[in-house]
Design brief:
The complex is a heterodimer of chains A (272) and B (178).
Chain A lengths: L7 H9 L4 H13 L1 H9 L6 H13 L5 H8 L4 H8 L6 H19 L3 H10 L2 H11 L7 H6 L4 H24 L6 H4 L1 H14 L5 H20 L11 H20 L12
Helix pairs in contact in A: 2-3, 5-6, 6-11, 7-8, 7-11, 8-14, 9-11, 9-13, 9-14, 13-14, 13-15
Chain B lengths: L6 H9 L3 H20 L5 H17 L10 H18 L24 H4 L1 H7 L3 H12 L4 H8 L3 H23 L1
The chains are: A mainly alpha (272), B mainly alpha (178).
Chain lengths: 272, 178
């Protein structure tokens, strides 16, 4: 405190903005260090509704801070309420992600041992991981948070697609990363099947629950892979051009079905 | 006055999630911050948003104040940058630095010493654009990039205007002292 304070005229001109730059600057400089003059200025504030801004500020800080993932979604341009809806999916909880990562790590490790059986294991597991995660991200049984969402007028299609995209952006890099330690072309050959299975699950969930369709798809794939594994030949052979084209067609067809039948999404009708 | 805790005490209490201390801090500082921001941006909703952002940031990171200097100056540093980032996400708002009719007659100028000094007169003779740049960069301490966002002009214009404004001031002061 200097003992020197702004006179009332200077203060009034400052608040009314009828002063010059030089005067305003020296007022501002003084305000930075003088609590008493700050208090006098505050009394005169009419530019904003301080009480209303306080209410908003308090409301904001009292809401728990969004998770890191939710903040990431927001910075990707998603509106706050949608980021929340996407992020609450159980698929994004730490435990679930850790489990998925562990399964993948084991499969990749087995494959890295250079063992044909290990490669088969990776081939069996990697393509079905994304569709299982996607299914669990919007299955009401897995996700109690969906209950209130069902009664709110929110486009289910948008929610499911948003969550699917979010899941894939999380799951695919992880699977890809593990794929790097897997020898041979197996490492990337599973990508199209994975996309195909996700599309099948989306389409099938217009008839049955997402989790059931994902389980059905996964078990069929496991059955096919184990059947092939009993025959001689490299795992790579399964995923050559022809088969890959087949998976691409499967993905496209399923997605079209899903879009055509989106009004029948099981999620909208409680099926439990 | 002993019953009134200082700002630093309040800030420590805010770090302990004390809503009462937070409110006191808000009541002490939101007002003058709002006025100072409003002198740089004529959109009051935006000023209100920037004030809200500022205090939310304080609540989330009270340890951002490292104990050097005044809390008021620290708060201002946050507030002006929050305003800049709010401006960045809006396209229709123009920042204003002075109202057109704002310049008071010379004889009405206050008795603040700077007004009588050469600097005050030299500043008054600058064009509004140059004054705006001087205010943003020299007085508010923004970077050229931040100033450009606040004033909605390209960074290069900020730099040239700043350069010219400094040259003007230098010339005016040299003239005055000779």
């Amino acid at each position: 405190m200097t003992g020197w304070h702004l006179d009332d005229d200077a203060l009034r001109r400052y608040v009314e903005r009828t002063d010059s730059l030089a005067e305003g600057t020296s007022v501002e400089q003084h305000l930075l260090s003088c609590e008493q003059c700050r208090a006098r200025v505050t009394v005169a504030v009419d530019v904003i509704d301080l009480a209303a801004v306080w209410d908003r500020t308090r409301d904001t800080v009292e809401v728990p801070r969004p998770s890191a993932f939710e903040r990431l979604l927001r910075s990707a341009g998603l509106p706050a309420h949608e980021a929340r809806l996407v992020a609450v999916a159980s698929a994004f909880r730490g435990v679930w992600l850790t489990g998925v990562a562990a399964v993948l790590a084991f499969a990749a490790l087995a494959a890295a041992m250079g063992h044909a059986r290990g490669e088969w294991l990776f081939l069996a597991v990697a393509p079905i991981v994304p569709c299982l995660v996607v299914a669990s991200s919007y299955d009401p049984w897995m996700d109690p948070a969906l209950e209130p969402e069902l009664v709110t007028p929110y486009p289910a299609l948008r929610l499911i697609l948003l969550r699917t995209i979010a899941v894939l952006t999380l799951a695919l890099p992880a699977v890809l990363l593990f794929g790097l330690v897997v020898p041979g072309e197996t490492a990337f050959a599973w990508l199209l099947p994975a996309v195909g299975f996700v599309a099948v699950v989306l389409a099938a969930s217009t008839w049955v629950s997402p989790l059931r369709s994902a389980i059905a798809v996964s078990s069929s794939w496991l059955a096919v892979v184990s059947l092939l594994a009993t025959r001689p030949g490299s795992p790579d052979a399964v995923l050559q051009a022809k088969a890959q084209a087949g998976f691409l067609a499967l993905a496209a067809a399923s997605f079209v079905i899903f879009l055509l039948r989106r009004r029948q999404l099981r999620q909208l009708r409680p099926w439990r | 006055m002993d019953s009134r805790p200082g700002d630093e005490t309040l800030l420590l209490a805010v770090a302990e999630r004390d809503m009462g201390a937070f409110r006191t801090l808000y009541e002490r500082h939101a007002g003058w911050l709002a006025i100072r921001l409003a002198r740089r941006c004529n959109d009051r909703d935006l000023v209100a948003d920037a004030i809200q952002d500022t205090f939310v940031a304080v609540w989330q990171k009270p340890q951002g104040f490292r104990g050097d200097g005044d809390i008021a100056a620290w708060l201002w540093g946050i507030a002006i940058r929050r305003l800049v980032s709010r401006l960045r996400t809006r396209s229709s708002v123009a920042a204003v630095f002075e109202k057109a009719e704002a310049a008071p007659a010379a004889e009405d100028q206050v008795l603040l010493s700077v007004e009588y000094g050469d600097v005050g007169q030299a500043l008054a003779r600058l064009s509004p654009e140059m004054r705006a740049v001087i205010q943003a960069v020299v007085l508010d301490g923004l970077s050229a990039r931040e100033a450009a966002q606040l004033l909605r002009v390209p960074v290069s214009s900020v730099k040239t205007r700043l350069y010219r404004a400094k040259a003007h001031l230098r010339a005016a002061l040299a003239e005055g002292s000779s």
